Amino acid sequence: MMVNEEDYLMLSGIQHFEFCKRQWALIHIEQQWEENVKTIEGQYVHRKVDQPFIKEKRKDNITVRAMPIKSEKFKITGICDVVEFIKCPQGVYIPSLNDKYIAYPVEYKRGKPKKHDSDILQLVLQAICLEEMLLLDINYAFLYYNEIKRRVKIEITDKMREQVENIVKEMHFYYMKRYTPKVKTGPHCKQCSLKDICLPEMMGKQSVQSYIERKLKE
Hints:
By secondary structure, this protein is an alpha/beta fold. Helices cover 37% and strands 27% of the residues. Strands 1, 2, 3, 4, 5, 6 and 7 form a seven-stranded mixed beta sheet that branches. A hairpin with a 2-residue loop joins strand 2 and strand 3. It starts with 8 loop residues before the first strand and ends with a helix. Residues 35-46 have low confidence and may be disordered.
C-alpha cells in the first residue's frame, strides 16, 4: 500500500496547536511564518542537538541526535532532539544496536517550564512515535529547559496519551478541511511570532488569505 506523505502532519505542530489553534493553522495550513526573539533563541538552543545521525556512546548508553521519527497510526512525522538508548536486559532487542535497550526522548526548550502543556504534549507524541517504531514501551521522557539548565522528568500516563490522540485527530480534521480557526485574543497574542501576520485586532473572523484577497480587490 502506497503511503502518501502529504497526509502526514508535522509532530512539532502539536505544540503550536495547544498554544493557539489559529497560530497552528497559519503556519501549517496557510504557510505563514515570521521570526521573533523567542523563535531565534529556540533555534540557538537546538543548534547542538539538531545534527542528524550523530551518535555518542558512553559505556552502555547511546545518544542519538536529531532522530527522524513517525507514526503510521497517527500520520505524524518529525524529529526528536535527542533519543537516549539505555542498555537493559529487560529492554527490547534493537538489531541496529545488536543488544537490548530501553529508550526515551529528550526535548530541548528555551526558557523555563510553561504553565500550559504544549511542551509535554509534544514530548508524549514523540514517545508514542518511538514506541510504534521500536516496538517498546516508554513510560517517561525528559524536557530540558535552557533557562534553568536542567531536565524535567515527565511521567507518561494513559490520560496524556488519550489527550494527544484527540488533539492529533482534531489537527487532521482542520488540515483536511483547510480550516483556520477564528481569532481568540488574549495575553498570549503579545508573545506570538505571528502577531503581525495574524492581525487579531483587525481581522476578526477572516483568514489571512481572505484578508489579502479583499485588500487586492480594493
